[in-house]
Amino acid sequence: MADKEANIYIVDVGASTAECRNGRMESDLEYGMEYVWEKIGLALQANRKGLGLGVIALRHDETKNDLDSGEGYENIAVLKDLGPIEMSHLKDLQKKIVSSSTDYGDAMSAMILAVHMIDNGTRLKTGKLGKYKRKIVLVTDGRGIMDDNDLKSLAEKVNELEIELVVVGIDFDDLEYGFKEEDKPSNKRSNEKVLQVLVESCKGGTFATMAEVLESLAEPVVKVTRPYCNYRGRLSLGDYNKYPDTAAYIDVERYFKTHQARPPGASSFVNKTSVSNGEASGQDTEMTDAPDLSAVKSVITYEISDPSAPKGKRDVGREELSKAYYYGSTAVPISASEENVTKLETEQSFEIIGFIHNDKYERYLNMGECNITIAQSVNDKAKMALSSLIHALHELDSYAIARIVTKNGKDPQLLVMAPSIENEVEALLDVPLPFAEDVRIYSFPPLDRVITTSGAIMKKHRNLPNDDLVKSMSDYVDSMDLSTFGRDENGEPTEYMTNEETYAPGLHRINQAIRTRAVQPDKPVDDPPEILVKWSHPPPELVKKAAPKLQKLAEAADVKKVADKVRGKRIRDQIKPLSGLDVNSLLNSQKPRAARKITMENSIPDFKQLLEASVSSSEIHDLVSQMAKIIYQMAANTATRGSFDVVTANMRVLRSQMMDLEMPEMYNDFIRAFKQKLVAGELFENEFASSKRELWFCVKSKRLGLIDTEVSEHSDISKEEAAQFYVLSTELPSRTK
């Protein structure tokens, strides 16, 4: 498990911290608290009982500490005792941490108080020091009064308790970082030297300026997880139960090597003030940190059809349900008492079933996360045996194939195990292998040759790249090489994108947003730090350097810009008669455009022909309006005659034509108006409620609703909105009434 921690933050709240300096629009206190709030937010998010945190206010208007009876501890207030932090503590600190009206208060005395609190809080009942990570962080502007008489004894006590001392100064000089404050007051310059001497006297001390510290906060904090053992037992080679003389086994432990880090999930809550009756249910979960919210509880009910029950349905309890599996289209029930027949009876085991040369293994067969297997720590015989196996695999360039069942009753897994000898740790790394059913076999034509229908192989073809194109592509790929684009501390080429600097953007972005909302609800969430979006695009210097190679590649590939699609124009070629005469063009040219009407008797052919001859969006809009009126008239006439097939056929043609013309909004406007008229009773000349239901059922069953983005990329209707559109929100009587 993670180590226990004891962290105390000393915050300078003197009157001088209320000033805005060096061109900042925020006070020195607000500037310094950005670091403290971020650290407190990380502690809150970790939610660890073993993480203790305390806060001391230096140069405070009040004196409130355990050493206040002694001289020199005035104007020092303990705002939070050392211990776990909760949201209530955070809100209390936000109210209390404000600039005071005094400049009195000694930073050395505040650090002595912090050492005293850590000593008392981390010492065991036996008097020995507990196993803690101890840290004191001082955030100050260095403009107060400071007594350096006890400097040596303070450093000795800090080293004795193994405390990490961090001094973060607002506008402190740091030549390595490249910051120097101009016109610095003499007392601040003197205080900086005193604090620097103290830090240098402490083991593992850190002295930094606030600008550098805030810049370092952009780098995400990776959560350190405790090792999790998912298997502890024997790794066998052969069946040692049947063949004890020839089989071998090694006592091993298996741990996660990689495990996907997932972002925190969101829960559903309801605002109590938004509840209509204004009263909270007695079963609501009270949120102590958010009294205005109540947790939402989900309730699932199960119903079955029962003609004898009210409304034809009856509720059933969950205990009455049983599982069923589909066998074709037939449901095959299996009761809870027989459920064991669907499970494979297995016993915990870990056995090597074969070996394979590493050249024969394809990396795409990796099916999951990596685990590491080591010998049991207190078993020297197992260490020797596993070391022999690892070195044998390493020398023979081979992998082991194993079958593992982590617990009794668990499904077996196949693993490929590779030897690992690194940092004096010998282990086997494994990843899951696919079973036969997991592999997908696809056949693709080769990229370097064309095979004709007669079986002939062609090395040169219009669909194959020529030598010039292959060379241009190779040169461009080489010019975009990231493996040596980075620079180390000495300016030597090194890898640009390392695993240690590659963070999950989604995970850390969500954590950043949660911390900001929790700690500072009124503050907008900042843009993601550069280190999270750094890998979203290639480095500009490399792109600029590779531009000439890209230009040569474009010329070799004869890349040309494709003209944008023109909406409202057909994308298919028109069929030309053998005579070369365009009959439709000749006929349409004889008609005045104003006289082009769609007839009721020949609506579909007329609509298609007139659309072919349309040259503007206004003409298309006019034809759609004519078609809509004809569909309305057909629906009104059909209500007395029965079938709505003619109506839906015209609607289908209108829908498909608008999709071909990439103008889905015209059809969507029509179908919305159609539904509105249907619900309002304006569609039929006579009132036929049952006909309303039948007509809408035909529209729904033939999928003639809104055109959504799944069907046309030019639509602005989502899939969910299109599905909701089919719901007819009206009280229409059914035929059974």
Commentary on this structure:
Pfam families: Ku, Ku_N, Ku_PK_bind. This protein is of the alpha+beta class and 737 residues long. It has 18 helices and 24 strands. Among the domains are: 213 residues, von Willebrand factor, type A domain (Rossmann fold); 143 residues. It has a 7-stranded mixed beta barrel. Strands 3-2-1-4-5-6 form a 6-stranded mixed sheet, with helices on both faces. α14 packs parallel to α16 and α15 runs antiparallel to α16. It is extended, with a radius of gyration of 38 Å.
Q: Quick one: CATH class of the domain at 4-216?
A: Alpha Beta
The tally of beta strands, per DSSP, is 24
Report the average pLDDT across residues: 86
Q: What's the total helix number?
A: 18
Tell me the CATH topology of the domain at 4-216: Rossmann fold
Shape: extended
Strand content: 15-25%
> Reading side by side through the largest sheet, how are the strands ordered?
7-8-17-20-19-18-16
Tell me the name of the CATH homologous superfamily of the domain at 4-216: von Willebrand factor, type A domain
End-to-end Cα distance, whole Å, is 67 Å
Instruction: Describe the sheet with the most strands.
Output: 7 strands, mixed, barrel
CATH architecture of the domain at 4-216: 3-Layer(aba) Sandwich
